[in-house]
Amino acid sequence: xxxxxxxxxxxxxxxxxxxxxxxxxxxxxxxxxxxxxxxxxxxxxxxxxxxxxxxxxxxxxxxxxxxxxxxxxxxxxxxxxxxxxxxxxxxxxxxxxxxxxxxxxxxxxxxxxxxxxxxxxxxxxxxxxxxxxxxxxxxxxxxxxxxxxxxxx
Length: 153
Hints:
This protein is of the alpha+beta class.
């Protein structure tokens, strides 16, 4: 082939690739609109907790699925999965309970017997914290050490 044909094909290919690229990639202003939504502190905490739970479950499922795992390791993984699922259910139940009591945005994290509660509330008082603690203790018979924190975000 001659140089003109090679140059033509190269330029044609370049134009074709760039055209496809610009058709597929969304405009910059659409990308920035998606990224501008700020997550609240509670949403960030909830996302981190969900990710931790998912990682724990995935790791334990990998242990169960592995042919190299012993019976003891499999039993420990099953116990861990059961505990994680139970913790998730308890956290969701307490969140639902608090939402029924009028706290619209809340986060609950359970770590053995320690319960961390974060609630979005402007101008919170010690009475609000006491009300939250009594509400949870009433349902769970004082089995948790409860830490309550209020945020305005």
